[in-house]
Amino acid sequence: MTRTLILASLLGATVACAPAEVDMPFDGDGDGLMDDVEANYGTLPDNPDSDDDGWLDGEEIDGFTDPTDPADHPYTGGWGIGACRNDVAGETVAVGSVAPNFEGVDQFGDTVRLHDFCHNAVLIVTGSEWCGPCQSYRSTMASYWADYHERGFMIIDLLLETADGSAIDQEALVRWADGHEYAVLDDTNGPISHQGYVNGGIPAISLIAPGGEIVILDGSPSASDIEAILPW
Ligand SMILES: [Ca+2]
Ligand SMILES: [Ca+2]
Ligand SMILES: [Ca+2]
Ligand SMILES: [Ca+2]
How far is CA 222 from CA 141, 155, 206, 218, 226, in A? Predict the structure, then answer.
């Protein structure tokens, strides 16, 4: 077959296939979800961000968040959410029990939920700005983060009070995070910490395994304690 004939037959094949392509799956709004599956998720095929929360419908499905709920979206902090987020049955705050879910506002203004990190080993640290040992412990957290973050390790740092003992605001969260990449949450008056995470002084440190079981409560988790439960 000559080159011209091959070309002609290729062109012919293209023309012959054209009518079928009308029914091919198509992502009309460019959000990563094909038109014909958007209905399955309750999203709109002509709107890339159906709930107007700033995250594309496809990004939300990939990130295990609800593309129809503006209060639920991937984290600005970039922390991955586990597919198991809604399957964790919280029990009580006690060693050997599955930690109940909690939520608090982070340094980016997002609401962070513990069970979103059901696939991670999670270090929970409670401190206050006025507390010297809490300030010192941040270098330990930074070290753990650098060593283990890539292996499924998460830190949730709960902040109770500012340096002068007043309530935490967004500025205080950003100041305390100081560029660190883990989550720092407003825990003014201790709605989270006082569920059982602080039983004496601060910093109070607990360790939760993937799946949500509390392995150390208000104790002194070591690097080897963390390594023993890293998911990957
Ligand atoms: Ca789409
Ligand atoms: Ca859409
Ligand atoms: Ca969205
Ligand atoms: Ca959403």
Answer: 11, 14, 11, 13, 7
Instruction: Please give the model's pTM, rounded to 2 decimal places.
Output: 0.88
Helices and strands, counts by H and E, the chain: 6, 7
Ligand 3 center–CA 94 separation, angstroms:
36
Which strand (E) or helix (H) includes residue 185?
strand 183-186
Architecture of domain 103-227: 3-Layer(aba) Sandwich (3.40)
Please report, for the chain, the start and end positions of each structural domain, with discontinuous segments joined by +.
3-62, 103-227
Shortest-distance ligand to the CA of residue 27: 1
205 - beta bridge partners? 125, 219
Position of tokens 């799946």? Answer: 211
Residues lining ion ligand 1 (Cβ < 5 A) are 27, 29, 31, 33
* Sequence-distant contacts of 70-76: CB under 8 A, at least 24 apart: 71/111, 73/110, 75/106, 75/108, 75/110, 75/112, 75/116, 75/183, 76/108, 76/109, 76/110
Q: In the chain, what is the straight-line distance between the N-terminal and C-terminal CA atoms, in Å?
A: 55
User: pLDDT means per 10 residues in the chain (232 residues)?
Assistant: 43 49 82 96 98 98 98 97 98 98 98 98 98 97 98 98 98 97 98 97 98 98 98 97
